[in-house]
Q: What sequence folds into this?
């Protein structure tokens, strides 16, 4: 199934086809029937809005055209005859038997989500941590958004490459290596804290305070202050010399330096993998393809641009100029060194050509927007935006906003440090466990009989769901405030609310005395308005997923699931399920409950959120 076609179990897909033929019969045109879910269920389930635009094109009367379409369209077994409204809308009310048939068709492991026949890969650049640095909350976003995007494409059957473009090469790493050696640190016992502080020392040593020195002279600061700054500048010089020679040894494959380099990568990644596992995000060692992977491809990138006549020398450096803007892209420094952008050009070529990716998605902080614009434009100039077989790739920077504290400033700990991801996850888990344990005190709670270990397991899932949902259900491009109290609540627009909705259905289904086969052979219940509203929303699940593949808006999943949970609650309040005496009706409702549970479970899995059976 191509990704741009409508899922067959979606009623809109059948309506679309039927109205298309009607439009053709009436006007000999091939036009979009504009089938939309109805804004008001009192008027129908769907509406077809094509008559207005069609009338404009054919200079006809929209209401007359609508009447002609209503007359021509064959909706036997699908819907009642359409009703004309307003300037020429057609309101459509589906036959219950048709809804039941579509529900039955989606009620299997696929849940109506088709598998695409597109064989090009999707490449998702995610996580992107830097070696020797703690993961901070920004990497939380790059990891879980990237993982969700990857899961959505996997769900529709695409081949997906998760690419973790680690910062594991270049001068900063060499500076850290050199600082560790000067401090005589035993690399076999290395902890991430030690590594982190070596990184920070290296950064400080490497950065001479030239501005400070100039200011000290200008303001006539005392000789003591000036001497201090001069000394710092001199040692910065020495540290840089040391780092540069370390970098040369690393680049030259010096066994000792390479071994040390591997140890600091192992040390960094140990914690990264622990965090990605806690987050239930599929980012493991097999997804590593860091900057170092591209080290031998950098010189050829620059040569390629020079040979194509797209790059030129500028004061000893090599730049790629653009026709539409002043800012060129620097791809080689005057000292011969390569840049972040050079590596990204090599990586992009690898992704489109070697991995045959027709869709490349960079899940990276929005503040890198200019960088990616330049890289993508340069790649397009040289033709590296094409797959191995020459198809033009769609390349996107999915830039996300910043995580803020309650003070609306980038999230910091009380002592003003950057929040490490680990601290944040620990706190969320702690909150999840205490919330779940507290609720289990109630003798009527389904979790009352669970052991402390089991409660802790559920609590972990709740804590992680809280932060993932809060992040993924937002407009990704916006900043958001990190507020654990709100995120972990069982009520409101939260992850735990959805998990709880799922667990309540699971709990109810577990109490049903009807056999699974009796339920499976019943027709889904759609007679009551609340049943019908729930059913129609369930049928939209596959289209929602396709919409996410197109827009990359992960918040659509959360919004869909939230509406699903609300419609379910409304149904559950007005339609007795287990208490219904009539076997046929009870089983019909149980079947609708089962499908709702499955869709909630599947939808949460796209966020990588676990759905415990009891909460
Ligand atoms: N390591 C980079 C950083 O922390 C992120 C890498 C993003 N991916 C990329 N292909 N540039 O800023």
A:
């Amino acid at each position: 199934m191509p990704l741009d076609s409508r899922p067959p179990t979606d009623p809109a897909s059948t309506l679309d086809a039927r109205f298309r033929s009607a439009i053709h019969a009436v006007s000999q045109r091939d036009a979009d029937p504009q089938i939309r879910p109805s804004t008001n269920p009192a008027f129908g389930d769907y509406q077809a809005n094509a008559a207005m635009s069609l009338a404009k094109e054919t200079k006809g009367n929209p209401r007359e055209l609508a009447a002609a379409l209503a007359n021509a369209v064959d909706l036997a077994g699908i819907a009642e005859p359409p009703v004309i409204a307003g300037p020429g809308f057609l309101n459509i009310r589906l036959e219950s038997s048709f809804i039941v048939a579509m529900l039955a068709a989606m009620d299997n492991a696929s849940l109506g989500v088709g598998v695409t026949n597109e064989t090009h890969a999707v490449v998702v650049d995610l996580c992107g941590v830097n070696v020797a640095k703690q993961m901070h909350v920004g990497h939380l976003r790059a990891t879980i958004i990237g993982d969700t995007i990857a899961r959505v494409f996997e769900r529709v059957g695409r081949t997906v490459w998760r690419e973790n473009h680690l910062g594991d090469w270049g001068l900063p790493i060499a500076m850290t290596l050199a600082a560790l050696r000067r401090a005589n640190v035993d690399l076999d016992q290395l902890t991430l804290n030690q590594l982190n502080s070596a990184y920070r020392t290296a950064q400080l040593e490497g950065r001479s305070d030239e501005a400070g020195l100039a200011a000290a002279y200008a303001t006539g600061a005392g000789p003591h202050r000036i001497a201090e700054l001069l000394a710092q500048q001199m040692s910065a010089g020495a540290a840089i010399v040391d780092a540069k020679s370390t970098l040369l040894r690393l680049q030259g494959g010096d066994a000792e330096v390479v071994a040390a380099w591997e140890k600091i990568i192992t040390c960094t990644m140990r914690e990264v993998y622990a965090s990605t596992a806690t987050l239930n995000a599929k980012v493991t060692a097999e997804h590593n393809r860091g900057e170092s992977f591209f080290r031998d491809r950098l010189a050829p990138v620059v040569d390629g641009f020079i040979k194509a006549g797209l790059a030129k020398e500028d004061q000893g450096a090599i730049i790629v100029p653009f026709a539409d803007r002043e800012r060129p892209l620097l791809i080689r420094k005057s000292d011969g060194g390569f840049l972040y952008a050079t590596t990204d050009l090599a990586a992009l070529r690898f992704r489109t050509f070697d991995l045959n990716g027709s869709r490349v998605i960079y899940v990276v902080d929005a503040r890198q927007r200019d960088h990616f614009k330049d890289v993508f434009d340069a790649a397009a100039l040289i033709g590296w935006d094409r797959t191995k077989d020459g198809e033009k790739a769609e390349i996107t920077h999915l830039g996300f906003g910043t995580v803020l504290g309650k003070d609306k400033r980038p999230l910091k700990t009380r002592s003003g440090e950057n929040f490490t991801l680990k601290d944040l996850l620990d706190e969320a888990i702690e909150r999840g466990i205490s919330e779940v344990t507290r609720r289990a005190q109630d003798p009527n709670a389904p979790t009352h009989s669970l052991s402390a270990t089991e409660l802790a397991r559920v609590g972990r899932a709740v804590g992680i769901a809280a932060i993932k949902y809060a992040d993924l259900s937002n407009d990704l491009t916006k900043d958001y405030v990190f507020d654990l109290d709100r995120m972990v609540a069982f009520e409101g627009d939260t992850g735990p609310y959805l998990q709880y909705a799922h667990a309540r259905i699971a709990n109810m289904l577990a109490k049903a005395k009807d056999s699974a086969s009796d339920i499976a052979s019943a027709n889904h219940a759609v007679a009551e308005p609340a049943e019908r509203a729930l059913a129609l929303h369930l049928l939209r699940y596959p289209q929602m997923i396709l919409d996410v593949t197109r827009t990359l808006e992960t918040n659509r999943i959360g919004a869909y699931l939230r509406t699903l949970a609300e419609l379910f609650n409304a149904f559950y309040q007005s339609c007795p399920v287990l208490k219904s005496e009539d076997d046929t009706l009870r089983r019909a409702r149980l079947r609708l409950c089962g499908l709702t549970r499955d869709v909630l479970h599947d939808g949460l899995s796209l966020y990588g959120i676990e759905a415990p059976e009891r909460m």
